[in-house]
Amino acid sequence: MPGPDVIVIGGGIIGCAVAYELAKRGRSVLLCERGEIGGEASSAAAGILAPQAETKGPGPLFDLWLASFALIPDTLRELEAASGLRVAWERCGLLQLALTEADARPLRNLAAWQQQRGLPVERWETSRVREREPGIEAPVLEGWFFPNEIRLDNAQFTRAYAEAARRRGVVMRTHTQVGRVRVEQARVTGVETTAGAYAAPTVVDAAGCWAGLDGGLPIPVPVEPARGQIIVYDAPLPHFRTIVQTPRVYAVPHPGRTIVGSTVEYVGYDKRTTDEGLAAIRRGLREIAPGLEQQPIAQTWAGLRPHAPDDWPILGPTSIEGLWMATGHFRSGILLAPITGRLMAELIVDGRSSGSWTSFQWERFARR
Ligand SMILES: Cc1cc2nc3c(=O)[nH]c(=O)nc-3n(C[C@H](O)[C@H](O)[C@H](O)COP(=O)(O)OP(=O)(O)OC[C@H]3O[C@@H](n4cnc5c(N)ncnc54)[C@H](O)[C@@H]3O)c2cc1C
């Protein structure tokens, strides 16, 4: 191809979403992926889209989550039409369980400020929990139900973004590792890869927890891997109807299987599952559903989430002209893919965005 307008580094859900949105706005895009499309964190995720249940409080990150969440149904419809691929999803809701007073206190606070904002949260008595979720065998103090929350097949979502991008003309080079971003006089000129050098005036670094490119970037990128382990139980029917969570475990009812997780471990670039990690997940599950925990395990895996020191994503321009960041999505990169793709493409193409993104700039670390 003649020099593309934009090179995207990384073919996870974030790189694919950015590439798709840029191509939609008429930009020619080359995406370089070191391995397979969606082969890392984006396939390892559990598929929970739950801004209300997972937030630590109001603020810019919660607003970004809600903005992306609002885009999900239309984005899925658009991607299915643009890619010809189906993405399994359901607005099944999420049930937070309090087994003790210590579990219940933060949930009551969460529900109080969200109800004040007019967001839907329901308190379920023990009897209601039993009636609605017979799979829960634990003595539950109370439940808090977030009816809007969604479960979605994240691997299919990533593939749909990738295929839609390809059909829009994005060139995907898999097994092509970017070693270095080329910069001349504080301006990006292209990248060096294992398949040769490519010139472009704009580069988006969406390489997940590898966004530092092992020293191949002219600026520091403070992201590190946060390992998460998962256990999958096969079942002809999902064990639960809703996503079920305690502070110690979550269980997600996907068609034919239940995904249970997860750990958050800072152990470097080590993607192995461990006996201790899987045992911690099983302990959490045993508290609420010992019957399910006794079932044979169908599969286990671990993935590496891109984590920045303040838990927030890194979005937008950097001090190098033409070098953009879209990383650090930590535990919510699947949820944040639609808003990230849109914000990045608007900023790169139009120089401004309708959404609010300034709290997430790379510059916040440069200032420290
Ligand atoms: C166990 C687990 C459960 C999770 N559950 C959820 C969930 O329920 N909901 C949710 O919203 N999020 C969840 N997440 C988080 C979510 O998966 C991530 O935030 C998201 O996938 C990050 O996407 P990404 O594209 O930035 O990273 P990745 O998917 O890791 O993609 C980065 C890509 O860059 C490529 N790459 C790296 N270096 C180079 C290079 N030098 N050159 C070229 N390519 C390169 C990699 O091969 C990789 O494919 C979970 C994560 C884990 C691990």
What are its keywords?
alpha+beta; binds flavin-adenine dinucleotide; D-Amino Acid Oxidase, Chain A, domain 2; FAD/NAD(P)-binding domain; eight-stranded mixed β-sheet; single chain; 368 residues; six-stranded mixed β-sheet
Structural account:
The protein is α+β, with helices and mostly antiparallel strands and 368 residues long. It folds into two domains: 6-83 and 154-222 and 309-366, FAD/NAD(P)-binding domain, CATH 3.50.50.60; 94-147 and 224-307, D-Amino Acid Oxidase, Chain A, domain 2 (2-Layer Sandwich), CATH 3.30.9. The chain has eleven helices and 20 strands. The chain has helices spanning 13-24, 41-44, 51-54, 60-83, 101-116, 126-132, 154-167, 275-288, 290-293, 333-350, 363-366; strands at residues 6-9, 29-32, 48-49, 89-90, 94-98, 122-124, 142-146, 150-152, 171-173, 178-184, 187-193, 196-199, 202-205, 224-234, 243-246, 249-254, 257-261, 297-307, 314-317, 323-327. The strands form four sheets. It has an eight-stranded mixed β-sheet, sandwiched between helices. A six-stranded mixed β-sheet has the order 9-2-1-13-20-19, with helices on one face. A hairpin with a 2-residue loop joins strand 11 and strand 12 (196-199). The chain is globular, with a radius of gyration of 21 Å. The two termini are 41 Å apart. Flavin-adenine dinucleotide is lined by residues 9-15, 32-35, 39-42, 44-48, 177-178, 206-208, 210, 213, 228, 230, 261-262, 303, 305-306, 327, 329-335.
